[in-house]
Design goal:
Blueprint: H1 3-18, H2 21-34, E1 36-42, E2 55-58, E3 76-77, H3 85-93, H4 95-112, H5 114-123, E4 128-133, H6 142-151, E5 156-158
Parallel strand pairs: 1-4, 1-5, 2-3, 2-4
Helix pairs in contact: 3-4, 4-6
């Protein structure tokens, strides 16, 4: 982190601490309303969507096998921010041993991809965002990495509603 960021963070914390408890609650509520909440779902578990899903984004480069384009509900297919074909194929060749390196490489791809900036601008317009993926592995997939990447931005609040995941 840069010293400028740390300085701004310190100043904001100092100002908030000087406020009264009522003002702190007000500020906290305003900040919560402005944040985008991100959740992750598997395409095959909820193809039609739920009311609390908000803006649904398919984050896979390939269309989910067996899903009808007419019946599957999504608001945006962000295939341009999915892992590159080369990276995806490399990872799938040895998924058990390449997860940590895949996370690093995919995060680098996200950082260098201008489509990521556009996606962030789009998603911040919505209170709730659901990232949709088709991977069988619910804990190790590109949606998990993308959610972590987005959560590192101050506009987002990562809400993992997948506490009972298996794998």
């Amino acid at each position: 982190m840069t010293s400028s960021f740390l300085t701004k963070t310190f100043l904001i914390s100092h100002i908030i601490n000087k406020l009264g408890s009522r003002q702190q609650r007000f500020l906290h509520n305003k900040m919560q309303k402005a944040m985008t909440t991100i959740q992750i779902k598997r395409v095959y578990d909820d193809a039609s969507g739920q009311a609390d899903d908000g803006f649904r984004v398919l984050v896979d480069r390939l269309w989910p096998r067996g899903e009808s384009k007419e019946k599957f509900h999504y608001d945006l297919w962000a295939k341009q921010i999915a892992p590159s074909s080369k990276l995806r194929q490399w990872y799938h060749a040895d998924m058990e041993n390449r997860w940590d390196e895949f996370k690093t490489k995919y995060t680098q791809e996200l950082s260098c991809n201008p489509a990521t900036t556009e996606l962030i601008k789009t998603l911040t317009r919505y209170k709730n965002v659901t990232l949709l993926h088709s991977s069988r592995n619910l804990r190790q997939n590109n949606a998990v990495i993308l959610a972590a990447y987005l959560a590192s931005h101050p506009e987002f609040n990562f809400n993992n509603k997948c506490d009972n995941l298996q794998n």
